[in-house]
Design brief:
With about 220 residues, the chain is an alpha/beta fold. It folds into 2 domains: about 150 residues, Rossmann fold (3-Layer(aba) Sandwich); about 40 residues, no CATH class. Strands 4-3-2-1-5-6-7 form a 7-stranded mixed sheet, with helices on both faces. The protein is globular and about 50 Å long. The two termini are about 15 Å apart.
Length: about 220
């Protein structure tokens, strides 16, 4: 069977490329405020507050933190083994690479810079004078990942068969709906697992070979 070469890859970040499932929980734990964040998480999961409100409440817990310190903590969250190799191989094949995350740009910007990636959609923590001021801007509402991906596909003239999506949670199902090549990474969603063309766990070490042997990287 022949496969179309990829032209666009849209990748979730947390739990897919980086080991921590949530950059919010990761920072709450590192900063010692997890006990303050827990009630907000439960309210959100129960549907009693929106994702935007949850983001606002989480960001408020970090008010006054130096952004340099936050960057240092986030840098200590390692990549999923094999993720750097996947990013390098996809870029080397001439594929446009986009990150899409319900996390924040403080977490995604270093990845973009390290691998020379092309596009990114993530929320933003507001920084004033080198310090987080406790506010956040929600750029990734529910359904936002799919809108971002479809807009990119339209702008680039890329079809689903030329588009790869990778994720780990139910929130990434909307990415899978856009793409013809679907990778589940350590999936914590059985729906996502069932829809995936390939499942990689506990790491991404075999992903480059999987893509190459099917001709997805040209």
């Amino acid at each position: 069977m022949s496969f179309a070469s990829l032209r666009l890859a849209v990748l979730d970040v947390d739990g897919t490329l980086k080991l921590a499932e949530s950059p919010y929980q990761y920072l709450h734990n590192r900063l010692g405020v997890a006990h303050l964040a827990a009630p907000n998480r439960e309210l959100a999961r129960a549907g009693r507050i929106s994702y935007g409100e949850w983001l606002t409440r989480d960001a408020a817990l970090w008010a006054g933190q130096p952004v340099a310190h936050m960057r240092g903590l986030l840098a200590e969250n390692p990549y999923v083994p094999g993720a750097p190799e996947v990013l390098r191989a996809i870029k080397a094949a001439g594929v446009k690479v986009a990150l899409v995350s319900a996390g924040f740009t403080l977490n995604t910007d270093p990845i973009m810079a390290e691998f020379g990636l092309d596009y990114c959609l993530a929320n933003e923590l507001i920084v004033v004078g080198g310090v987080l001021d406790g506010r956040a801007v929600n750029y990734v509402p529910e359904g936002g990942k799919a809108v971002f991906t479809r807009d990119l596909m339209a702008d680039l003239g890329v079809g689903p068969e030329e588009t790869l999506a990778a994720g780990d949670l139910d929130g990434d199902l909307e990415l899978f709906e856009c793409a013809g090549v679907r990778l589940a990474v350590n999936p914590r969603s059985e729906r996502l697992r069932a829809l995936a063309d390939a499942v990689f766990e506990p790491d991404l070490l075999g992903a480059v070979d999987w893509l190459r042997t099917r001709g997805y990287l040209g």
